[in-house]
Amino acid sequence: MYKNFFKYLISAIFLLGFSVNSNADFKVGFVYVGPTGDHGWTFQHHEGRNAVEAAGIKTTFVESVPEGADAERVIRQLAQSGHDLIFTTSFGYMDPTNKVAKDFPNVKFEHATGYKREHSNVSTYSARFYEGRTLLGHIAGKMTKTNTIGYIASFPIPEVIRGINAMTLAAQKVNPNIKTKIVWVFTWYDPGKEAEAAQALIDQGADVIMQHTDSTAPVQTAEKAGVWSFGQASDMQRFAPKSILTSIIDDWAPYYVERAIAARDGTWSQQDTWHGLKEGMVAMGPYNSAMGADLVKEVEQLQKDLASGKVHSFTGPIYDQKGNILVAEGKVADDGMLAGMSVYVKGVEGDIPK
Amino acid sequence: MIKIEKRNDVPMALYFFTPFIAIILTILGGGIIFYILGFNPIEALKFYFITPISNLYGLSELLLKATPLCLIAIGLSFCFKSNNWNIGAEGQLTFGAIVGGGVALLFYNQEGFYILPLVILAGAIGGMIFALIPAILKTYFNTNEILVSLMLVYVSKLLLDYLVVGPWSNPEGFNFPETRQFSDSSRMPLLFEGLRIHAGIFLALAAVMLSWFILYKTYLGFQIKVSGLSLKTAKYAGFKGKTMILVVFMISGACAGLAGVGEITGPIGQLHRMISPDYGFTAIIVAFLGRLNPFGIIFASLVVALTYLGAETAQIFLQIPKYTGQVFQGMILFFLLASDYLLFFKVKILNLKKNELRH
Question: What is the reported pTM?
Answer without folding.
Answer: 0.85
